[in-house]
Write a structure and sequence with these properties.
Helix content is 67%, strand content 0%. The chain is an all-alpha fold and 212 residues long.
Length: 212
């Protein structure tokens, strides 16, 4: 007597909003957090780091008419934040978790730039005058918040365009705040690392889309 075995059923496709796997979103959160701490320690808590960081800002800061021109080209951070939150609110109408991902991560990212700036100390190691801590950059954080919203909301086919727009806006804001003397380079980099961590959190809230 012969017996036959039924073939194993094909695995079910992963839903677009299945929150697993969590490995690489959690890795982004860890990378952003550790990177931020490293930048703070190297650029703020060390004499050489302070000297290099402030020296770069002083070397590239523009004055006079060029300062006025670039200041007029600086995007309004409140407008960028409002646009990012508006996109998240609209996304709620179509998909709850996607909208929540934006509405959770965007305020968290922007608020963290303000809270950390006030909480973290800046010892006077290399600066000839007492300077308040300016790390991380709130202006850059607002631009990165809009970039993050675009990445979380865009369908896969539009991700390259969203990444290009978000990166361009963030680089523009980051370069301007250094050229205008508002922030040191480390402030901009610290905000970018916070955005990396916030992006990982956003992916966990929204769910990781499968690779097809």
């Amino acid at each position: 007597m012969t017996t036959s075995t039924r073939p194993d059923p094909a695995p079910l496709p992963r839903l677009a909003d299945d929150p697993s796997p969590v490995g690489w979103p959690a890795g982004l959160m860890l990378l952003g957090g550790l990177g931020f701490v490293s930048v703070y320690v190297l650029a703020v808590l060390s004499t050489r780091g302070q000297s290099i960081d402030t020296g770069v800002m002083d070397a590239v800061t523009v004055t006079g008419s060029r300062h006025d021109l670039l200041s007029g080209l600086l995007p309004n951070p409140y407008l960028l934040l409002g646009l990012a939150l508006g996109l998240g609110a609209l996304a709620l109408l179509r998909h709850l978790r996607t909208g929540l991902a934006v509405l959770v991560t965007v305020p968290l990212l922007v608020a963290s730039t303000q809270v950390l700036k006030d909480v973290l100390p800046r010892p006077q190691l290399a600066d000839p005058w007492v300077m308040a801590n300016s790390l991380p950059s709130g202006h850059t954080g607002a631009a990165l918040a809009l970039a993050l919203a675009l990445l979380l909301l865009s369908p896969r086919r539009l991700l390259p365009a969203a990444a290009l727009v978000g990166a361009g806006l963030s680089l523009w804001m980051g370069a301007l705040v250094v050229l205008l003397g508002y922030h040191r380079p480390s402030d901009v980099l610290a905000s970018a690392l916070l955005a990396v961590g916030a992006g990982g959190l956003g992916l966990l809230v929204r769910g990781v889309r499968p690779v097809r």
